[in-house]
Give the backbone structure.
Amino acid sequence: MEIVKRAVIDKYHRALGETGSEALVKLSAWIRPQTTVLDVGCATGSLGTFLSSIKGCVVDGVDRDLQAVLVARTAYRYLQVTNLESTDLRLLFPRGAYDYVVVADVLEHLRDPQMVLRAAAELLRPGGELLVSVPNFGFAPVVAELLTGRFGYRPTGILDDTHVRLFTGPSIRGTLQEAGFRMAECARVHKEPHESEFGTRCLEALPPAVLGFVTSLPEANTYQFLLRAVRAEDLLAVDAVVAEPEPLRLLTPVHLYWRSGSEYRAEWSSTIYGELARAEQTLRLEVPPLDGGLQGLRVDLGDRPGVVYLLSIRLLGPREEEIWTWSGEVGHLQQAYHERMTIEEPAPPGAGAVLVLAGPDASLELPLGHEYLDRCSGGCAVELELSWPPSPDYMLLVDKMGQRISQLAETESRLAGLVRQVAQLDRLLERRFELLKQTQTRYEEAVRERDRALHRLDEQARVLADLEQGGNARALETLRRRLRAPWRLFGKLRNRNGSP
C-alpha cells in the first residue's frame, strides 16, 4: 500500500456501499454469480473485489495506472497495465471468453470510445452483456452553469478535468449503437443539486421561467446513466427491456397562485409544465397549508399566445377528497374573472371550453365560493385536464415555412427550365459550329481547285508565248480565240481572291 499514489486512491477508489459508489452497486446487481467478467478501467479494484469475494466471479482487469493495479491485483485472476487509447484489447484478452465486459466511468476519458467498444463486442461470449456507466452532461446544474457563462472543470465528477468526451442519454445510446450494440436496459443515478459538486448557486441565479424549464427537462435530475447492452445479433436471446429514445418535448409553464388577502404574489405560487401538441394531459398543482386561510386561486396558462382545450378542473383536499369540480358549463367560466384570454364554446359543444390566450400571463381565477376555499386551509391541490395544441405562433411559423418551401420549389422549377433552355442552346450552337466547319472545309477545297486551274492557265500562256515566237501566227490566233473566254473568267477569279 505504501507504493500507491495517494492521488489515485483519493480520486477513483470507491468501495461498494460508500458515497459515490452508486453506479458500481447498480452495475454489480446486473452481474450473475459464478460468471466471467472483464473490468475495463478497474482502477483500485473495488468492483473486482466485490464480484470475486461475494459473487464468486472470475474477474480479469485492465487499467493504465500501475499504482492502482498493484492495489487491485489480489482480487483479479489476470491484470494488464496499458493505455486504452493505443492498445487493442483483443490482443491482450481471449475473444469470446467473457459473460460481461464492464466499462464503468471510462468512455468519457477516451478520445475514441469506439476502439474499446468494438473490442468488447468480440471479447464477449454469445449472449454476453456490455455494462456501461457515464456521467450525464444534461444534469440540470451543468446546464445552469452553461447558461450563466460558467464551465469549470473539477478534480472529479461530471466535469472531471480528465474527461475528453461528454454524453447525454441520446448520445451514449448512439455511441453504443455505432459500435454494434443495442441497449437492453437503462438505469440512472439521481442526485439533488445540493448533493452534487455543483451546488445550487447557478440554478438559483436563473430567472424563474428559465429555472422552471431547466429543472423540467427529462434527465435534469440524472447524474449518471447506467446501461446494459448486448450485441445486435444477441438482442432476442436476452431478457431485454429496450428503452426508446426520449423525444424532445415542447413545454410551457402553468402557474397556480393563491392569496390569503386581496393580492396574488409571485412567492405564493407553484408551477408545473404542460406539453404542447399533446392531448388530454392532467396537471396537478399543490397549495401548502395556509395560516391566514385561502381567499382565492388563480391559474396562469402558458407563456405565449395559444389555444387550450380545458376539459376539467378539480379541487382536492389534503386527504385527496374532492372539494369542487367544474360543471363543464362554459358560461360558468366566462363569468369568472379572467385576463388576456377569451373563453369560447368548443365544437361540438359539451367537450369542455376553448381558452384563446392572447399572450403571456393569461389568467383565470377559479370560480370558488368561500364554502370551498375554507376547506383548503390545510392544503389542497388543483388538477387541470387539458389538451394543448401547438400555439398560433408555431402554426404561423409552420405556415410561413410552407410558403417558403413552395417558393423554393417554384424557384427550383424555374431554374430547371432555364437549365433545359441552356442545354437546348448548347445543342443549337454545336450544330451551327458543325455547319461552319463544313462550310470552311468546302471553301478551302474550292480555293485549292481554283489555284490548280490558275496554274494550268499559266502553263498554257507560256506555251502560247513560245509558239508566237516560232512564227505560227495563224495557229496562235485560233488557239488564242479558244482560250480568251476561259482566261477572262479565271482572270476575274484571280482578281477576286487576291491571287498574284
In short: The chain has three domains: 6-237, 251-390, 396-497.
